[in-house]
Amino acid sequence: MANKHGDFVWYELLTPDADAAQRFYGEVVGWQIARGDLSGLDYRVLSAQAAESDASHQIGGIMPLTPAMIDGGARAIWLGYIEVDDVDQAVTRLQNAGGRVLMTAADLPGVGRIALVADPQGALFYLMHSLDAQDSLAFAHDLPRPGHCAWNELTTPDAKASLAFYNAQFGWVKDGQMDQGPNGTYEFLRHGYGLGALNPSPDAAPAQWTYYFRVADFDTAVERIGAGGGQIGMGPVTIPDGDRILHAVDPQGARFALIG
């Protein structure tokens, strides 16, 4: 079954040191990482095997930031790719709704068409129309799959505006909420399945997506974050379904989350 408009289909780390990032995430998450063929670019493809009976799934990539990108203000960051029916039409709708375009729509031979954009509150993501008709398992909404993304969380200073924006762009809907006391209301998102959530920002900082990658051995992953030079910012904590989560920053400064 092919991915539909509004599905997360890929996750990409932009980083100033791809070699160091490859070592770090290979140890922490357990990804198999190999050089990919992307128009001559240095691109590392992340693959995960969810179970012994499962084939290996490509879930994302690592791309080094160039000196020109860094001089222009780019920083280490995880970005998600959202499938759309037509990238150019999606760009126009996004701009009309107050979003911004950071990289104009371009074709990637053999891959598809993409554009790097930001929502009205500043959260960055890619729009993508894939050439491959296969259903991406980068976001594992069907069952727990180690090495795959398990949750997409948007921290935003304006949850009401963010919900309206993403509903209009991709058809996402609110599916319940959880009271966090002084930390505000955590609002769940659905797209035919549990997609993620909106989390209120404690200050007026720009919105940002955080992606939760599932690990097979949570305690070992915690140890390897510290051993590899990363820092844990929140957690570990146990969530209502019994899983544990944490937020962390890798050695190059990219924010990510783990669940297990």
TrEMBL record:
The record's InterPro entries line, in alphabetical order, gives:
Anthracycline_SecMetBiosynth, Glyas_Bleomycin-R_OHBP_Dase, Glyas_Fos-R_dOase_dom, VOC_core
For this protein, the record's Pfam families field holds:
Glyoxalase
* CDD domains reported in the protein's UniProt record: SgaA_N_like
**Any idea where the VOC domain is?**
7-130, 145-260
The name on file for this protein is VOC family protein
**Whose protein is this, by species?**
Candidatus Macondimonas diazotrophica
Organism phylogeny: Bacteria, Pseudomonadati, Pseudomonadota, Gammaproteobacteria, Chromatiales
